[in-house]
Amino acid sequence: LKSHAALHRLRKHCSCTSEKAKSKVLDFFPIVRWLPSYQLRDWILGDAMSGLIVGILLVPQSIAYSLLASQDPIYGLYTSFFSAIIYAVLGTSRHISVGIFGVLCLLVGQVVDRELALAGYLTESGIGSGISSNDSAVLLAGQGNGSVVLGCDRSCYAITVGATVTFTAGVYQVLMGLFQVGFVSVYLSDSLLSGFATGASLTILTSQVKYLLGLKLPRPQGWFTLCKTWYSLLVNLGSTNICDLVTSLVCLLVLIPTKELNDRFKAKLKAPIPFELFVVIIATLASHFGHFDTAYGSSVAGVIPTGFLAPQLPLWSLIPNVAVDAFSIAIVGFAITVSLSEMFAKKHGYAVDANQEMYAIGFCNILPSFFRCFTTSSTGCQTQVSGLVSALVLLLVLLVIAPLFYSLQKCVLAVIIVVNLRGALRKFADVPRMWRVNRVDASIWLVTMATSSLVNTELGLLVGVLASAFCVLGRTQRVRVCELGRAAAREHYEDLTSYRGLRTHPGVAVFRYEAPIYYANQSLFKKSLYDRVGLDPVKEKTRRLKFKKKTSEQEEEVADVTYRKPEKDEATAAATVTLDEKSRRSVRSVVIDCSAILFLDTAGVNALKEVRKDYEDLGVTVVLAQCHTSVRDALERGGYCPDAGEDHGGERRLVFFTIADAVRYVQNLSAANGDCDTKC
Description:
This protein has 27 helices and ten strands. By secondary structure, it is mainly α. Strand 8 (589-593), helix 24 (602-617) and strand 9 form a beta-alpha-beta unit. Residues 498-666 form the STAS domain.
């Protein structure tokens, strides 16, 4: 029957009908499902206003986060534009938008800076000076790491690296969706992601301090970049640009309170007030008319061209260098998107497909990478239509307005990044509460945060995953067997140490093990059970063998005195009974409550078989109760229940549906054995 059912499922999955093909197409392009039911008159005005405001907010953020990814401002605008359109077509969440995300920009920027250093670009002169900058170094093919394109300056090579990383991460995400591995997101817990985001935020904050102070310092590579950066900042503190410092302080004093106002009144506002854009406009005008770049040496955004560049393929020879980095970027980007999607879907009463989200985010990275874009993820809350409106706003900026930001100071962009880190940095205030609620989750958060910030960002994600896994394993290692007692009024059993008024059965001990039994904890299960019963069968067998050997030696010594032998046998038997009764605590039967055992592997089944056999050798009956279906199946496959003959009586003697049934059975069995012994 099982093989027939499996064959039927295989035929069902492999068959192809017109309805199934149509459903697959509609699932792959969710816009085809929701667009015909879009209520144009009721929703278009709100979506248009929301999209307009979000698009306006995306302009300064896109330019700012380009700095974090070590790219020119134009590439941030490209990224936000293309990703918004693609996710509107392929995404399943109706309440998030896809764009530039700070943590991913940091990861991309670290890879870009590393490859730039390997290629021989040691300064930042090319970043922010425009695509066609003439003062940037030009490397010929064969120099540096051998991957540089002929005539490609620093800015050109930076976006080439960024686009290649983005393409590779997108391929990973599409492959994950193809192989239906969207479930991996469940292994990234909230505490892990929160700790990782907070640790990365500290790194981002540190990386922006040099722009706030107007210092031109290279980004450190390798591990412990946070400490290296702060050391470099302190050493070069005397070279601070006063103009940039004053501008940074003024912008911080304006943006922090205004962003707080937006957060406080967000329930009453249809869309947030774009204070960032106001600051950018005012700062750009002040820098332009005050000639901050020439008079005070302030770093500015530089030339931002209009229009689009011709599509360009990734640098294939660079993929092996960035493959590992791209994988961590793919996992983080997907986890952030799915967590936000599921949160808004639950709030508004619909479902999201994790695998389809993997496809959507993957193509939001693959397709834009041909147009010199870098990695994206979910960034906020809006509908797909408002996302398209935001894309139109960005298109207007790309075609007309972008060159007007030439005089925008980099320190202003750094302020925008720092102010947007408030949410992640506030998590430090929640640490005491997290510790009170759950110390394990708080520990995972602290370990992940510390590793991400102090050691290495990508390593922090790996350490967080390993810490979570070890915590889960550790919980199964710390579980102990507890003895149960029966309530007086009904047949209900609970832990004797947790409740009062519970009664035990004479000669019968009931125990519960609240964890799965598998290879890693099966020995701990047996040890804990033996300790609670008060009788270790292995030690008892050893003691009996020693006692028997000693008795045999004594019998040989007194073999010539034959008339004393019967008295010796009687004394030996009496001593044996006395020792056995003392070590057993008068327990003749053991009932193991399996209601908390979720699964058994081969080692777990063998452990239960060993417990039963060892105790049966000592005359103690062991039975199981309240086993889950999966546990019963594992016991059956593992040969726990021996062949019982007719009526399957053997299984009833070993496994019971309730504890009460098991207790009554062993009591009746003990009584029957007692009557038999009396008659004998």
